[in-house]
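Entry for the shared binder. Reason: the reviewer on the internal report wants the predicted structure included alongside the sequence.
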Amino acid sequence: MTALEAMRARRSLSKVTDEAPTHDELVELVSAAGRVADHKELKPWRLIELRGDDRLMLGRAIAKAEGKKGVYSKPLRAPLLIAVVASVRSKKVETWEQEATAAGVAHALSLLLDEAGWGVFWRTGDYMRAKAVTKAHGLEKGERLLGWLYVGGKPERARPLHDKTVDGERFLSRMPRKKR
């Protein structure tokens, strides 16, 4: 599959099965995803693998962040969650650029997971910045949680791919020219 075909076929699967890639399979894909554009090669990102009880710990942290008791159930919707963390490593490179690199790694990884046959969707939420959630992930100063990739098997009866073609002409323009 070419990169163009992978992008055209990409879609989020909000319902996945209980299968997930192994740690070793994931390491190989992360190694490839890490090749995104990266000003000064800072590698301003890291990923946190959440499986099993890690998801319960996250569910408790989210419930706490929302002022509730118990376990928030959304982290249990996939067997593997991958927390995407932007790690600002330099004051000489804009923060937004370092966060964009981390987001690029997450997107590349989602494409690679999809191509490998896994269902993937990216989840965010207001609670991402909550102290309980950032503490549960062990975030340090200069780090920011960008969300989680939820990963699992693709269900046999996944809804059909509907046409999500983007009109490239609508979003592509030329540099404006000064009027004389």
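Summary line for the report: The domain at 12-157 is CATH 3.40.109.10 (NADH Oxidase).
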